[in-house]
Amino acid sequence: YDYVLRDLFLWAILMNRTDIAKVLLCFMKYRICPALIATKILKEYYKEADYGHLQDGYLENAKYFEQYAINCLDKADDYSTELACEIILQQNELYGYVTCLQVYLI
Q1: Residues 79 and 87: beta-carbon distance below 8 Å
Q2: Which part of the chain is the TRPM-like domain (predicted)?
């Protein structure tokens, strides 16, 4: 189930169907890493896009997913700073054992 959601989420981001991706993200067990991955993909799309309105859409959606990840970490930090640190450094099996910190720094 987790792999299906991951694949559908990535497909939605790659096809610029961010409305679908936002819904899928709500059903995912781990949300910060996919939100950061979506941010990275959409920022790359933004750099490559030729048209202003298309660029604007990519940038707007990249900011949405970035803010989503920030909000999730803020909520975790409100509960426990230690938990927030664990989330940032936890290896995510669904994405090749990458950590949220690694995704953010790439």
Answers
A1: no
A2: 5-103
Please tell me whether residue 55 adopts helix, strand or coil conformation: helix
Chain centre distance of CA 26: 11
Give the HSE-up count for residue 63: Cα atoms under 13 Å, Cβ half-sphere: 6
Whats the size of the chain, residue-wise? 106
pTM: 0.91
- Which pLDDT score is estimated for 52? 78
CA atoms within 13 A on the CB side of 88: 15
Q: Which of 71, 12, 20, 61 is nearest to 39 (CA)?
A: 61
Q: How far apart are CA 99 and CA 86, in angstroms?
A: 10
For residues 6 and 28, the answer to whether their CB atoms sit within 8 Å is yes
Percent of the chain with pLDDT over 90: 83
Q: Which of 79, 75, 82, 40 is nearest to 61 (CA)?
A: 40
